[in-house]
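WARN  no MSA supplied for this record, continuing single-sequence
INFO  ligand: adenosine-5'-triphosphate
INFO  echoing inputs
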Amino acid sequence: MTALRDDPVTALGAWPRLRKDPASLVPRPHLADYEATRQGFSWEAARSGLSGLPGGGLNIAHEAVHRHASGPRAERTALRWIGKDGSRREFSYAQLSTEARRFASALRGLGVGAGERVFLLLGRIPELYVAMLGALSAEAVVSPLFSAFGPEPIATRIGMGRGAVLVTTPELYRRKVEGIRASLPSLRHVILVERAGEAEPVAGTVRWAELVPGASPDFALPPTDPEALALLHFTSGTTGRPKGAMHVHGAVLTHYVTGLYALDLHEDDIFWCTADPGWVTGTSYGVIAPLVHGVTNLVVEAEFDAQTWYGILASEKVTVWYTAPTAIRMMMKLGVEAVRGYDLSHLRFMASVGEPLNPEGVLFGVEAFGRPFHDNWWQTETGGIMIANFAAMDVKPGSMGRPLPGIEAAIVRREPDGTVAVIEEPMVEGELALKRGWPSMFRGYLGEEERYRKCFAGEWYLTGDLAKRDEEGYFWFVGRADDVIKSAGHLIGPFEVESALMEHPAVAEAAAIGKPDPIVGEVVKAFVALKPGFAASEELRRELLGHARKRLGPAVAPKEIDFRDTLPRTRSGKIMRRLLKARELGLPEGDLSTLESDERPAAGAAP
Ligand code: ATP
Ligand code: MG
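INFO  complex generated
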């Protein structure tokens, strides 16, 4: 794109700002004037966008489906499902509500009460959505698991969560659960969702087909306390053993407000969140937020494939698309040409979450789709989007945007006495903190009370991420506290190093770690995966080292670069720097339950 300013210190901030003219945007964004909306915002007032249960209380499933089922959106498509084989199923709000109520009745019939844990181990199939909304209707606590988990992570999570019910498929059950079932005394019921033609009874399980379709659709929701537990979500395990974050029904207010402001959902939208519900994004935004807004929620069963995705964006006329840097980087690998030929004129807003989005990724959006990817930041613990690039606001590539109205974010320094001091000065690195009390704030880490307490200092929730805030109030991600590299008195954020490497045409992905060094403490080492058509060589290594030195300056640039075919990644798509580091230093690898793809040395790479 446009030439870069040759300023190594602010390499990230040097990208040209993408200007927005709110007046020209159609439809008018819900958040057209950031300052005014922020000032006038209160969570109490925002509550008027929700209905509440007729008999009092607040239940996620009621806000997401049941209220629409008896309103003007009853016949609108709530869920549009596209199977791996191209088959399709659609559920209107009325139908989805009926199915969810049947599942709730079925749970009651099994003697499953409020507060009991229902685990879901399913691919992205319609029954997953029915079960989730049904269990929430019955005030059971839902814990979605990623269907690619092996037996060990499944056993650990169900064990920790004292799961009473598991909904899965015969195939997953046989392969992953049967062998661990005896170690899970809390698990009273296993419900199997069969595919057509699959009707072999499996000992110790009940068939969905026999349980749910015949259950009563007249299930009356209990008057759910907004503080009642609703969801148990395990973190990605990027920095260590996954934690079980507990969320309440009242979180739905954040889902509503973020759907409105951060995703800018409008009545007629076709929304597609590409995340799996096994991760919090796939639940908060793959299920709850779009349904609360009454839009059509597209669910695609197949895994990532760029051409398939472009085809779906075009044929389904997707208007709002929420995806992740890992997918964006894979699309970038194929280049903008691969997008040509698809009619993507319906696409209005594109957002990204999960990892820092390199400026290259933001601008790839502009080149390939005619609009930037809007990065936003949040965590399993926050339950919903907290910092975002909003539709009407200028985008500064590399920045994660500004806090949601109702969210107070600050950069803080931890003091030795356990308190924190807010850093007012712009562009000074510190820990990102949020003022506690937003509706979807997690209410605990399962079984780890002390760890939960340690996340707070006074009125602040400490996120464990390092960031900076600029004069205009935009936040810039530096790195996870655990990943930050300390070199010769500098704190180096891996994100900046990786973004600089990604500017090089040969680089598809990069990860930077700190490697102990007797003189400067740590030196930066980077691992790089190349785009198709580029081969690892000594010459390219030298070229990349030189490029990084020019962009970042000698103090920050990597001293070593290794080539890899792939970088190790969690199943939610995050690069596992801790694993690269452990392997580099010959240290124990730690919890690998969420590891998806493993690193492979690049063919032809020097050792
Ligand atoms: P664990 O806590 O188990 O190590 P995790 O932190 O990766 O795993 P998640 O809750 O899924 O688990 O991820 C949240 C984290 O992802 C954030 O704390 C942040 O480090 C990173 N992240 C998410 N979105 C962004 C973003 N837009 N920019 C930078 N980092 C992001
Ligand atoms: Mg985390």
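Residues 93-109 form the longest helix (17 residues).
INFO  checksum written, moving to next record
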